[in-house]
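User: Structure please.
Assistant: Input sequence and predicted structure:
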Amino acid sequence: MSKTKIVVIHLKEIIYTALFAGLGILLVVLLVIMFLNKKDDSTATMTGTQYTPGVYNSTLVLNDTALNLEVVLDKDHINSVRIVNIDDTITTMFPLVEPSLNDIAEQLINGVDIDSIVISDDSKYTQTLLLDAIKATLAKATVPEEEDEKDQ
């Protein structure tokens, strides 16, 4: 004689199992997407040129005095950032301009992306002003997407 076995499964257990299985699958899919996109982005920026090599200038106005910001670029690297015509009145009225620019320039020359620059709390506004001027200068030297694809 065979005995019939009755299995009782609670609906609550089924819902919890389905929920955790769904979250596990979602986590695996997100991790795969995240790591695959990161590899594609890094190879695309490393193979192509980012800038047209040369010396680029932009003007920064402080206290009715125009400062010329000079950025020297290779095809994929920033070589130097400096203010060409800074005079004593600017260094006296705005003493944080030169140290702030030196701090930013050091980070850029060491390969830090312009959007990842660390701004100190002591000269936050001065560095933000200088970063905006540097971004405007780099925009002049940025290689358009079509030209970058033609070079490859």
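Helices lie at 11-47, 88-93, 97-109, 124-141, 145-151.
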